[in-house]
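Field guide to reading this record: the first block holds the primary sequence, the second block holds the structure written as discrete tokens, and the final block holds curator observations. Each block starts with its own label. This record concerns Alpha-glucosidase, catalogued under organism Saccharibacillus brassicae.

BLOCK 1 — SEQUENCE
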Amino acid sequence: MESQQQKRTGEREQPGSGDDWKESVLYQLYPPSFKDSDGDGWGDLGGMLEKVDYLAELGVGAVWIGPVCDSPMEDNGYDIRDYYKIHDAYGTMEQLEELIAKLHERDIRLIMDMVINHTSDEHPWFEASRSSIDNPYRDYYIWKPPGEDGGPPNNWRSFSEESAWELDEATGEYYLHIFDKKQPDLNWENADMRRDLYEMIRFWLDKGVDGFRLDAINMISKDPSFPNAPEEARHPRGQQFYKNGPRIHEMLRELHEETFGRYPGTLSLGEAPTVTMDEVVRYTAPERREMDMVLQMELIRLGKDFGNPWKIDPDWSPVTLKESVVRWHAEVFGQGAYATYLNTHDHPRMIGTLFGGAAGKSEAQAGDLNQAAAKAIGTFLHTLPGTPLVYQGEELGMPNANYGSPDDYRDKATVAAYKRRTDEGEAPEDVLRSLHARSRDGARSPMHWTGGERRGFTTGTPWIPLSPDGVEANAEDERADRNSVFHHYRRLIELRKQSPVPAHGDLTMLPLEDDWIFAYIREAEGERWMMLVNFSAEPRECPVNAEWARLAEAGELLLGSAPAHAGSAGAGAPFRLSAGQYRLHLLPYQSAVYRLDGDRADAAPEPL
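BLOCK 2 — STRUCTURE
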């Protein structure tokens, strides 16, 4: 079948169509943890160059690399000191240019992470800004005099749970930092500042960068009155006054006109936390010319307490997951655009936290469950509406790093939370347990290239400890095993290239008595697929309509994670007939994808 991805990298189409991005699979590469080429324990551009063929073998259409611009590394590069320079630990501008060229040769596009809500406090703009209240760069950032009580201008809190304002004693004023105090927020009300940012973005687009993931982009417009937030407001306090602010759409349209709109075919992918679906449509509707896609962040927050970022919530329900998928399809799909993901550098990996090896299992059993769960997650991700985003190591089934000591953690918020909570009297082992489930460092442990002592990541000491678990989940072994998670992902990506269903198909979620089993149908251009996924670590069984079995029997098994059951219907369909009743039986984390017979597709079960 002819591939859906026909446009070669570099052939820029007009803004607004964007189908080639929707049909692609994005791969997130976290630079410090991907591959170290010089033995200093820090991933770099040289390591990325070594693994271009690996990415091509996997079949991804674009690679998003985390920030590589010069930085003091207070937040692993999300605190940019110089937008025009590559950070020394990552390599050189020449290496980045070589990476762009090598990826383009393999029809893979490069997306850079760009932080334009804030900079480092060591950026020349901020150093000039804080030098005096009369400096021309003063208004590039948000400065306010003390409040009536002589303290901060308002009661907003940063993501580190401290005041969002920092006093500059030299000038007697406070500057705003929604993130760390080393990351002052830029003042997007200043036209000169915006002009300088647009010039910088065009610099990178001229180098052949194919797009940007725009960090915290829905935070650039602040309420100009800077009001106090209710004291009981959820963490971080004050966010309702700077997320999706009063001028956000105007600012994004100008950003598009001055940058992406001049480079047809480039991608603007927005990180927009707590955005509503109505806002997603406004951000990404092609005719509005603001952004091409946003990251769908509901799924990544499974099991997380919104009011307490460290709270473990083991009672999350799969019903919530189903409802989210159905709602986003109904309210956004076809009107706006979004990227769907289940793992990222900012959240713990789902394998080893929500899914995978369970208590009471042997090490071998836990490893097998992790691999099965990884295939289930992959099947789900790649057959959902939206553009799939794969985080490095996810395609291997790497589990979340289960660090045994607080000294293993590097994330500033994690380290601060451990100290605060133990100082307040919590048992260290209880705090560590919650850090394992919630710290983003668990997803930042280095990539497993081999099963050796350093996993093939470095010849030196890695910047963050290697995961003590999941040695079997490594690229060398999995590439040699045709039944591995790696090849499961590779086949899923290939299926996306061969059919319009994953990128463009309508969604029908099918009713079942068992909430842990997901059954849904996608349809596009007369082609229909049925997906079955068991998200439980236990076998699951439930009654189904006989038409389900007949549909599967008449169809084709495109991809399955488990062998056929004896006496099952069709090409490995896990249906059993007993006493005149068909029952669906799935092994732990079993998943399957079927292409249904077009002549009988209209007989599908009723939707939810």
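BLOCK 3 — OBSERVATIONS
The two ends are 32 Å apart (CA to CA).
The chain has three domains: 19-117+191-401+444-493, 124-176, 505-603.
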